[in-house]
Write a structure and sequence with these properties.
The complex is a heterodimer of chains A (392) and B (598). By secondary structure, chain A is an alpha+beta fold. Helix content of chain A is 45%, strand content 11%. In chain A, the strands form two sheets. A three-stranded antiparallel beta sheet of chain A has the order 1-2-3. A three-stranded antiparallel beta sheet of chain A has the order 4-5-6. Chain A is globular. In chain A, 51% of the residues are buried. By secondary structure, chain B is α/β, with parallel strands linked by helices. Chain B is 31% helix and 17% strand. In chain B, the strands form seven sheets. Chain B has a five-stranded parallel beta sheet, with helices on both faces. In chain B, strand 13 (440-443), helix 18 and strand 14 (467-469) form a beta-alpha-beta unit. The chains are: A alpha+beta (392), B alpha/beta (598). At the A-B interface, helix 2, helix 5, helix 6 and helix 7 of A face helix 1, helix 2 and helix 3 of B.
């Protein structure tokens, strides 16, 4: 006969070394798979939970569902042929891959990028950040049962995808930032249509703010939950909004400006609590910052000029021996490409540093112990990780 | 937790009267103007160069033969077939397209239950979006391959007119690499080159700086690579994929850059006779021009004994006695021929067949005979006074041989081909040396843009001070006693009649007299066939004044082959191709003969 005792004070019991001994034979524990098919944000990745009642004793992260061997594929392609692949490393914010790869190639091949192209690149990156944050906001609210915010955010993101489509010719994999520049100028009337999207987004964000940051349910579910001790940031390689929510005002755009960020005004927002609420709040403020950055870029950018520098014949493009690391501030933290060339027509090695790699594996395993099952989804989403960039 | 935190979420209810935001009908939505949808290919522009296939990182493109598209000069006849199961819509194929024929429509929805339907040839397999103007196109300024030819230095007109020094500098190593980098290795040039030289591969050797490897590649198909690097008619460049949206690759100059970059003495190490046994069979070749010497080079490398009979003082044929030194310096030609001689080829100069030795003697003493006598007799206009005219080809030969030629202050040239330019520019140089000024008039039937001469030749002639009168037909060479005084011409209204036959029509009212102390006819050449003798001439089959040959270059006589200008018209690279063809045929015959004896 089924019996249930709410008293779990006697287990799990730590052993002499402080670790919990999990013996499934005792019947006190249950293995529970969280994923791999989890709708929405956390993507194809799973966490193998060991639960005791509804409390998580430990969690093991399992990745590999999305492994397509991109870094290896890139070594088998010429420098121009790598260009269509890189965006696929990260689905929701592909443009960082395009930018980092292009910038790395340009540095090693000594190619100059026209000014106009650097402005358009910055615009593209901020548009990508907008989309990515929209997904994060939708994700976190969805994970906490606030489905309607998820719908609004997805809709607003869709409007931005329309702008991506008219600018780049594609909605998801833009393949727009070519080594040497970008593929095209802004279409006519783009600024006006972009402004419509931005003001619509602001309206929905104002509503979302009431449903999230002024909601007692949301606050209860997120404040004090998923706390990351700032002392762990360095050890676990925590960057971006996850670190800024713990009071670390680090942002690659400010600390080592690339593209035209040194010509733009923006604030790096921080919070102190380092919990799910703080992380969501940092993203929310950053999203507003991104909206004003897009406006600023469209206002400040030159109105004409070439968008493409001189490339050698790409069909037999060889790049001299060298290595470089190009980094930028993505919506999840520091994103980087390490490129090694050996004088041939193929990259010797490309390594992608996706922030999800550090956030979604070791850090998540560390944070997950002791949480409630119902908080696991919110915790994962609050770290804002994209599995494809873990498995390059 | 404040009361506000409890109440504010209810504000979402204000949206209850709004339409749902997440439903969109994808089938009625038009994609953006530059959307990357299904491909379109303009069949009038596509040349089948395959650059799209080359750049595709998914191997989604295959170049396939299609009905109605035939291979021809500058067109492979192949067209890209795209497999949409592999295509990732990156549009690099559109970006790299050499002619701008490949674009993408903004059509992206298509449902079909047959998976094979998604593999088709755009532009050939008709689709509803074929004429859709919207979709992705490459912006004009953006190219993935270079479009501008590397500059070539040459001596300025003032410095070159007083001498016969070579005028084209040749590429520096840096220029050569920049130029070689533009090649997309489509190979359309290989099909066009009469000798089918391995152009993309030797260009890639230039790119890699491997000039010695490049030289070996050149000699696999052309023992006159040094000459062709300077004076080839470069038909390859007229079919280059790069010419459609930029300058054609300077294939000829790149060839020269290889031959000039390898030290002379290294040629003999790099181009060695293969280790083949001597066959004991021998071949006589009449005429040491490019066709004869190419045949000799090939046959000697196969182990046959080869003797070349040359009527003139030095070997080289028309390359030496027709082409002026400022285009092809003699020391380059001498070196080229010495490489051929190093294969064991024996060249006997001043041996005019028909005088020093007869055709019959050759037929008896050798297993095969090759006739490569060139076109050394000038044609005449046969206008009144033309018996007093000089033949350009004669004059050029005499200038090369160092003979004294009369150099009047004013010379008129009849003809608009390369030979006309050669003699005009040679006479201009002699005038400059003798009189300190140039006085050359060139008249031709054609309009300037239809001249048979290369564009550069015309431009350089003008730069050097020659006057060119296009569309002028010669009527009379004016003579005062024994002295030529000028050329009388009429304006040409039409050169050909309605059936396309040569029948020039003149405007008699538009007459000009070009004063000249010498009139040179440069309207074409013919072969001097007197060496054959009456009996052989009778036995051979002829085709409109030329010896008839089969596809292997063999005449109607089983022991006699013919090659070069005399059968293919004036062109060095054609002569080289002829030489190879004849050598293969002779070698096959000799092998069969040897095997029959064993």
């Amino acid at each position: 006969m089924f019996s249930f005792s709410p008293d779990r004070s006697q287990y799990p019991q730590p052993g002499p070394d402080g670790k919990v001994e999990v013996d499934l034979e005792t019947g006190k524990y249950l293995k529970l798979w969280h994923g791999p098919n989890h709708p929405g944000i956390t993507g194809n990745m799973s966490v193998e939970l060991t639960v005791c009642g509804d409390e998580v004793v430990e969690g093991k992260t399992h990745v590999g569902y999305l492994h397509r061997g991109f870094e290896k594929l890139m070594e088998r392609r010429t420098f121009i042929q790598v260009f269509p692949i890189v965006c696929r490393v990260c689905v929701p914010e592909p443009d960082f891959n395009e930018y980092c790869y292009a910038a790395a190639v340009e540095e090693l091949a000594g190619i100059e990028v026209p000014e106009m192209a650097t402005w358009i690149r910055t615009l593209i990156l901020e548009m990508g950040r907008f989309n990515s944050y929209m997904m994060a906001m939708g994700g976190i609210s969805g994970a906490l049962g606030l489905g309607v915010v998820g719908q609004w955010m997805t809709y607003t993101r869709d409007l931005m995808l329309d702008r991506f489509e008219e600018l780049t010719g594609a909605r998801i994999y833009h393949m727009f930032i070519l080594p040497g520049g970008v593929r095209a100028h802004l279409p006519e009337g783009f600024e006006g249509r972009m402004e419509e999207v931005l003001s619509t987004a602001e309206r929905y964000l104002a509503d979302a703010e009431k449903l999230m940051f002024h909601s007692s349910v949301f606050k209860t579910r997120t404040q004090g939950v998923g706390y990351i001790d700032p002392a762990l940031f360095e050890r676990y390689g925590v960057t971006g909004p996850n670190a800024r929510a713990g009071g670390v005002a680090k942002d690659v755009r400010k600390d080592s400006p690339y593209l035209v960020y040194d010509q733009l005004d923006f604030t790096v927002h921080t919070e102190e609590a380092s919990d799910i609420y703080a992380r969501t709040m940092v993203r929310f403020k950053d999203l507003h910052e991104t909206i004003q950055l897009i406006r600023q870029i469209l206002k400040k950018m030159p109105k004409e000029g070439p968008v493409m520098g001189n490339l050698p014949n790409v069909l037999h493009w060889k790049i001299p021996r060298g290595e470089t690391y190009i980094k930028g501030e993505s919506s999840r933290g520091e994103y980087g490409y390490y490129l090694v060339t050996d004088g041939t027509g193929y990259p010797r090695r490309i390594n992608v540093r996706g922030p999800s790699y550090t956030h979604a594996m070791a850090l998540l395993e560390h944070l997950i112990s002791g949480t409630n099952i119902s908080d696991v989804a919110a915790l994962m989403v609050s770290l804002h990780t994209y599995p494809p960039e873990i498995e390059r | 937790m404040s009361l506000r935190d409890v109440l504010s979420p209810f504000t979402a209810w204000k949206h209850v009267i709004n339409d749902p935001v997440t439903i969109k009908d994808p089938f009625s939505r038009e994609a953006s103007d530059r959307y990357r949808g299904f491909h379109q290919n303009d069949m009038d522009k596509c040349i089948g160069c395959g650059s799209c296939e080359e750049i595709c990182q998914n191997a989604a493109i295959d170049m396939v033969p299609v009905e109605g598209q035939n291979a021809g000069p500058g067109d492979s006849g192949l067209r890209p077939m795209i497999d949409y199961g592999r295509c990732c819509w990156c549009a690099l194929c559109v970006d790299v397209c050499m002619t701008g024929s490949l674009t993408m429509s903004n059509e992206y929805t298509w449902v079909d239950s047959d998976p094979d339907a998604f593999r088709f040839v755009p532009g050939v397999d008709a689709k509803s979006w074929d004429l859709e103007p919207k979709g992705y196109q490459r912006e004009d300024e953006r190219r993935l391959t270079g479009t501008v030819r590397a500059p070539m230095g040459e001596t300025c007109p003032e410095d070159r007119i007083g001498n016969f020094d070579e005028i084209v500098d040749g590429f520096t190593a840096e220029q050569a690499i920049i130029e070689a980098d533009r090649c997309v290795e489509c190979g359309l040039c290989v099909a066009t080159c009469p000798a089918h030289m391995d152009i993309p591969d030797y260009i890639s050797k230039v790119r890699d700086g491997d000039y010695e490897g490049g030289l070996q590649l050149l000699y696999e198909t052309n023992p006159f690579s040094q000459a062709c690097g300077r004076i080839c008619t470069h038909k390859c460049e007229t079919t280059c994929a790069a010419m459609h949206e930029g300058d054609a690759i300077a294939i000829r100059w790149l060839k020269r850059s290889i031959t000039d970059s390898v030290p002379r003495e290294r040629y003999f190490d790099l181009i060695q006779k293969p280790d083949v046994p001597e066959t004991g069979q021998s071949v006589a070749i009449i005429g040491a021009g490019p066709a004869g010497l190419t045949t000799a080079y090939d046959l000697a490398r196969k182990g046959h004994q080869v003797v070349v009979f040359e009527a003139l003082d030095k070997p080289g044929g028309m390359m030496r006695y027709g082409i002026p030194e400022y285009r092809l310096p003699y020391h380059v030609l001498d070196h080229e021929i010495s490489v051929i001689e190093s294969m064991g080829v024996e060249i006997r100069c001043n041996m005019r067949v028909g005088q020093e030795i007869s055709m019959d003697q050759l037929k008896t003493a050798y297993d095969a005979v090759v006739l490569s006598i060139g076109l050394h007799q000038g044609r005449s206009t046969r206008v009144p006074g033309s018996e007093k005219a000089e033949a350009a080809i004669d004059l050029l030969r005499r200038i090369t041989a160092g003979e004294e030629v009369p150099v009047p202050e004013q010379v008129a040239v009849i003809g608009g081909g390369n030979v006309a330019m050669d003699i005009a520019r040679s006479m201009a140089r002699l005038q400059k040396i003798k009189h300190g000024k140039v006085g050359v008039t060139v008249t031709a039937l054609e309009e300037l843009d239809r001249f048979l001469a290369d564009k550069e030749e015309i431009e350089e002639a003008l730069e050097e001070g020659c006057d060119i009168f296009p569309a002028r037909g010669p009527q009379e060479i004016l003579v005062d006693g024994d002295t030529v005084t000028g050329l009388r011409t009429w304006k040409v209204d039409a050169i050909f009649d309605a059936e396309g036959r040569f029948a020039p029509k003149y405007d008699e009212d538009d007459e000009m007299v070009h004063p000249a102390g010498m009139v040179v006819e440069a309207i074409g050449q013919m072969a001097d066939i007197s060496l054959l003798g009456a009996e052989l001439t009778e036995q051979l089959e002829w085709n409109r004044g030329r010896i008839m040959i089969d596809a292997d270059g063999q005449t109607s006589e089983p022991w006699l082959w013919a090659a070069g200008d005399a059968v293919s018209g004036p062109d060095v690279i054609h002569a080289v191709a002829d030489g190879h063809r004849v050598a293969v045929s002779i070698s096959r015959m000799l092998t069969a003969k040897r095997e029959a004896l064993q």
